[in-house]
Structures are given as structure tokens and as C-alpha cells.
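Here is one chain, start to finish.
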Amino acid sequence: MPIHPTAIVDKKAEIDPSADIGPYVIIDGPVRVGAGTVVMAHAYLTGWTEIGRDCQIHPGAVVGHDPQDLAFKGQESYCRIGDGTIIREIVTIHRGTKPGSATEIGRRCFLMAASHVAHNCKLDDDVKLANGVLLAGYVHVGAGSFVGGNATVHQFVRIGELVMVSGLAGLTMDLPPYMMAAHRNQCVSINVIGLRRAGFTPEQIKEVRQAYRLLYRSGMPFGKAIDQLANVVSTDAGRRIVEFIRLPSTRGILSGRRARATPQAIEHSSWYRTSLRWE
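Its structure:
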């Protein structure tokens, strides 16, 4: 497919012959564009950016531009976009801020219009960002997660895999895998629809639901609830939640929307300890 005659392409760029570069596109610097990728009108690709195969980059998108970091001095850093990713209108993705560091977008991701991915973020495969999502620097979003429209995520926050974040939510702390978040730092349920679509077994979904109840609804102190959960999980899904929570965290683990430690909650948690071993 052709490079449109109005496009401006740097001599250092490497464009696969099967890629389609649309009108008024600017490709500045040693950008690499993979086979079958379509770059539409007025998109801007720059820096040490690598675009995979069969991607779509829609009008006005900016990929690989300088990070919004006053400490950045123009050093070589990277932006990598995985195969099959769709980047819609006026999305902005900035490259890494430290020398040799990278912003990484996985395969088959879908970044909807006006979403922003700041420097050094990492999006695993199949992540979806709805319109207007704002990810600050060093955010990590796990595979298969969905972040709703105009949600904002604080720098260094980790979001586990197969998570659902509601529109307009604000996260300043890490959200464990398979959960649903809403409002400001509130874990409100599990992403049961997403788990079913991902092929989780009823036993795995049951354990994720029980983990949510123990962590967020039992009224137990969060640290104690984690230790107890670690002693009773038996599926990969349950073990993954424990693993995520116990990994090093800059922001800490979200523990919003907790039940109060009333006598009824304590009684419930005692019942729950028994029920986990199994129903």
C-alpha cells in the first residue's frame, strides 16, 4: 500500500511496504511501522517508536512523543505498540522518561478516542481504555482489563488482569485482579461477566467471589484477611489474587468499601472461614 504524497516521513523511519500511510501523516525519527498497519490522516509518530503488525492509528493520534516530565532532557527512550492494537482519534501515548526506558502497549489493545497513556506505562494484551481515560506515569494495567470513560489512574498504580473500572472512577491505589472498581478507590464487586467470557470455571469464579467477600466485606483488618485468604485458596485464580497483593507496591492495595467490624460482621467472617474449606 502507498505512502500518501502529502505524508512527511523521516529518512530514518522503517516502513513496511504493506503499511498504509495516509494524508498529512508525520513520521519523525527512527520510527518502525509493521506489516499491514494503517496510519490515518494527521497522525504523528515520533521518536524511537515501534508499531507492530496490523495496527490501526486513527486521525490526530500522537504516538511516541516526549513525556510530560520536567526531568526529561531528550534522551533516547522508547514506545512500543503490539500487533493488532487500535489507537483511535487524538489518543496520546508518550515514550519513557528515563534513558533506555519504554512505554509498552500489548497486543490487541483498544485505546478509544482522547485517552492518554503517560510515560513508562505498561498495558498488557487485550486491554481496553474507553474515551477520555487518563493513565499517569508508570501505571500497569493487566491483561484483558477494561477502564471506563474518563476514569483517571494515579502514577505507579497497578491494575490486575480482567479488571473492570467504571467510567469517571478515580484510582490512587492498586486494584487486585478480577475485581470491579467504581467512584474513588472503591472495590464494589468482582468482574463476573469478564471472568465467564475469559473461560473461568465455576469453581474459579466462586473462589474469586469468596476472596472479594473476605477482603472487602468481612470487616476483618485487611492484612489479616490477606493472610487468611492465602491459607485457603485452591485455584490459580485465588492464588493470583494473593500473589498480586503480596508483590511490592508503591501506592498500596485499594481497600475501599469495607464492611464495618460489627459483631455481625465478625460472626459472618467466622462462618466464612468455614465455608471456604469448601461448600
